[in-house]
Design goal:
heterodimer, A: 42% helix, globular, B: 622 residues, alpha+beta, 17 strands
Chain lengths: 124, 622
Amino acid sequence: MSDVIIVEDEREILNILTQLLLSEGYQVRPFTDSRQALDAARAEPPGLALIDIMLPYLSGPELIQLLRAEVNPHLPIMAMSASSNYHQVRDLDIQRFLEKPFDLEDVLMQVDAVAGAVLTRSPA
Amino acid sequence: MSFTHDEPPDTVYLPRMDPSSITPPLALPDLPAPEPAGARPALQPARQPARPSVPSSSPAQRLAFLISHLLAAPTEEEARHTVQDGLRALVRCRRVALRLLDDPPASPGAAHAPGVPVPREHAPDAGGSGYGTHLTGRNDAWLRIPILADQKVIGTLALEAGPGQRVFTPAARATAEIVAHVLAQRLAHLRLLALTPPPVMPVLDAATPAPVAPAPAAPNTSDRSDRSDRPDALRLAGVCELLAGAVLVADEAGRVVAASGAFRQIFGLSRDATAPGVPSAPLLERVRSELVPLDPPVPIGPASATRPRRYLQRAPVRRVLERRVRTILAPDGSSLGRAVTYRDITHDFDATERQQRFLAAVAHELRTPLTGITGYAQLLLRELDRTSGAEPAAHGESVARAAQATAHATARATMRERVAALAGQSARMTRLLRDMLDLTYLESGQLPLRLEPVEMVRLVAETIAALRMSATSHRITLQAPRALVLRGDGVRIEQIVRHLLENAIKFSPGGGAIRVTLSTRRGAGGGANEVAWCVLRLHDRGAGVPAGLEETIFTPFAQPETAATRWISGIGLGLPLSRALAWQHGGTLRALPGQRSGATFELCLPLAGPDHPANAPSLTEP
């Protein structure tokens, strides 16, 4: 079984993404705290991580580094941000970047493209 | 009324007026026709009406008229006469006397008409009391104004009040000071021009062979024939001074013709370093080596010539300078030389930067709540669509239940419509914010291009296909070669093309044909500077761009609101952003003026990309 870890400190956006992926039959573990997300990923590696860049405590880029180092160097990771600061985004070791506000259909397409093969999905 | 030395002098010492605050008319008047040499002696009271007389309008207009004539005076003699005649008309006085330090010593017989006393002001023993109004004790008064060039006295201008006149008003004094200032500038230029072998001059008369670098003329030459051929050089020098900025003018051979004081001051150059005849290339190279470019390099081409470029000067003070290079053309279209101007835009630049930081912060803050609004609207839509077929069947139910179900379905349809509108509007706001941020990043140089080969025909065709959904009543046609590859950032070029197409669709609401053509064009430079261009033209049959707004539509939020510019308020930031992206590619984007119906936009992009060696920025430098 392989699920999606979502880390986003804005509750409403976290809720939207969670509802969206659940409605498509994916299994989701939502977090507002990046430290808890890291612990959860260490305990049980996910099939995909969807990470906001601007996070308190442990920032998005830091979390991405730790996931790569400690969980799975090939973990599919999608980052998202309300900032389209290209310098910052270009240096990230990620598969996809979602610029906020995103289109939900686009999010689903990207998830499927990046990790569709490894994610467990039940009929919605 | 008589004056004696015992009476308090009737002198009004004004705070010094800044003559540069008086703006002469920008267009120099046509130069007067050359007059026969030696037509008039130095101080002839009655002048021949060869040059236009001062019009009878307001004093300020008459002063402006005098200044414009003075700046266009082709010879020193003409300049002197213009001052003498003009001032006498402007300031009520009996006589205007002009003396320069390098004039031959004045003697009553030579310099002045018989019977007119040598003005005491010009006499060698008159010094000591400084400038201002002086009383001669001979029933008259003189107002003496220094003629200053670079803070050195090069002569005096003296006005004589007639007997019975209560001498000079503050306005008269200010007028004389302004005229003295302009005269000093004009004289300096005329002397520079006399020292400099002229650039190749336009042949004004086909029968006369082109003058080939005549020997340098003496500054005070009375030979008018060789100078009357040089209106363009004079106009050039006049314009150079009118700009009152940092200007360096070089002739076709690259030698300095003139440099303004501001130019020397900004770059800490000595007078010798910018003396006429000095090669301009090493000088400009040295000047530029001290500057840090703030704009990405641009290629040679139609865009590079007119586009200002910004530089940062770190020392001696931090300045942001805007540099322009213009070719100065003779009436026959041949090049006379170039003018390089630097404008200090530090204040504007800093203000813009603060504004950009603010915009970026606001846009960023707005995006987070917008993500929530867009997300929930889209989630709602998905849920409505998903459950739309799950209504309980009305078969076999009572009529009341069936009516209830129908009402329910109608309410759902209305709800779906409204949620879709909500999603659509928030998507629109998203696009606007994205454009705003892109534009902000682009203008502050934080949106680097990712250059790669881009197949334009496919890119344009795919963009059209993606937009066909929203343009069902439009017929979009593409006329293009089989393939057209250029070096650029495909994502950004697609952004430009999409904005242009969306614009065409939006402004032809009734539908109609939108014609897109793709072609190539050779550069005008020729040789190594030649750049081949990809030209995309997009023509629609919509409302068209209101005449005169062809440039304004590319300026974000800069236009004052008028009936015409209100048209612009609906177009968002697509066009300014598109132009900025085109510029970043070393290309151009413009609305072609004079369209009979609809609008035509033309996008030109260099095939070799902005970083091709043939487009190296150094080639654009003089």
